[in-house]
Description:
- GO terms for molecular function: 3-isopropylmalate dehydratase activity.
- Pathway: Amino-acid biosynthesis; L-leucine biosynthesis; L-leucine from 3-methyl-2-oxobutanoate: step 2/4.
- Its cofactor is [4Fe-4S] cluster.
- There is one protein chain.
- The chain is α/β, with parallel strands linked by helices and 470 residues long.
- The chain has helices spanning 7-15, 40-49, 80-96, 112-118, 150-159, 184-195, 210-213, 217-227, 241-250, 256-266, 317-330, 350-353, 356-366, 384-392, 395-401, 451-460, and strands at 16-21, 24-28, 31-35, 59-62, 101-102, 127-130, 144-147, 161-165, 168-175, 203-208, 234-237, 279-284, 291-293, 301-303, 345-348, 376-379, 405-406, 427-430, 445-448.
- The strands form five sheets. A five-stranded parallel beta sheet has the order 5-4-3-6-7, covered by helices on one side.
- It is globular, with a radius of gyration of 21 Å.
- Residues 37-38, 65, 132-134, 147, 415, 434 line the site of 3-isopropylmalic acid.
Amino acid sequence: MTAPKNLYEKILETHTVKRLDEGTILLYADIHFANEYTSPQAFSGLVQRGAPVLSPDSHLCVVDHIIPTADVTPRVIADPASAKQASTMQENCLRFGIKAFYGPNDPEQGIEHVVMDEQGLVRPGMVVICGDSHTTTHGALGALAFGIGTTEIEHILATQTLVYRLARSMLITISGRLPAGASAKDLALAVLRKVSARGALGCVVEYAGSAVDSLSIEGRMTLCNLTVEAGARGALIAPDEKAEAWVEEHAADLRGEELERARGYWRTLRSDPGAHYDARVEFDASGIEPMVTWGTSPDQSVGISEAIPEPDSFPDPIAREAACRGLRYQGLQPGMKMEGVPIQHVFIGSCTNARLPDLQAAAALLKGRHVAPGVRAQVVPGSMGVRREAEAMGLDRIFRAAGFEWRKSGCSLCLAMNDDVLQPGVRCVSTTNRNFEGRQGAGSRTHLASPQMAAAAAVAGCITDWRKMA
Ligand SMILES: CC(C)[C@H](C(=O)O)[C@@H](O)C(=O)O
Ligand code: SF4
């Protein structure tokens, strides 16, 4: 009898090339993808050493972080440093024989974490690597996916492996049913509030339970995307029929006998009864309402009907200090509600919440309504593929008629590395994952929420409970 294993251990087992010492292994990566921002030094490292890319077909490169998202064709990157990053990536792909390059004007361009799954490249049981922290997103399909640093990117390119420090395992069981009006984003923010921004440090988190089962794949992606904000080194959800169907729809090359074999394997990808975890957290989804962040860390959020907590209510002195600082930066007071706080900007976008169902949810609320005077509202689809699908459904017309800007794909205002930058003091409801000081521009104020909450705030001109408009 072999000991029961959890899903993380099962994936590690099939990808361990060699054990290096007690806590470190050489890990094989099935697929690696790169953005123009974190990969250049890794490629130059290879050039300097005269080393090739071992397996050029196992990499995908996409320009997303610095690209302008204005709705113009062709897209031209005016900023010389950014233009250089994009052209360098293209040159590196040509030099090293990487065929999968999605540049600024490629019809499949998009945010790397949206493009990867859309292209059918992520499959259950894979090890998926990228030089970007939100790679945890792909755990939604049952892949062990995580972000790495630049030197590690070089190692992956050269060897298709990684020196990997083993993580602790954490099981978060989310029971109950998510109430009507609460989305995967609200669930993710509520879990993050409970676990805290450092609560999953060094852990690969596996999600299980009825509330997770009932999420769509896109909803699971939102949840896994935000898991890194708890310090996690990975997020995992065991693949079920929904995940199978999703992968089959997107992975055009997987058909016939090969698909049958893959399915047989995917069905083994669940934790054995009695498997060990280093930590366990229980969570009930049934009390969750639409959430919004009040501070400058993604775990500082409240339900829309709740009051902002008193910093003194946090037992941990670091959390208390962070709360004071967050409130000061955001210009908010403890005890007040977020409902009614005036806003000047709304951003619907990012690898957290810019897939088709996110845009559909926002558009459903915006139909027949208009953005409030004084509010600038932008929607940036997660990929050009998502944009095309949304246009085929007429969503662009709804957004435009409501006074939203309908834009091209990229990270955009999620981190303000392109020309979308907020002015100091501008308050924004954003469907993204980070509300750090200055994240959307120096002195700007970010409040994380769901696409429905963002759309409702645009219409009301202030943070509001979208359920009242549904
Ligand atoms: C630029 C990149 C290194 C960064 C990340 O790793 O997540 C970015 O995508 C972000 O969301 O802050
Ligand atoms: S959309 Fe935002 S969170 Fe996602 S990869 Fe881009 S910058 Fe990072």
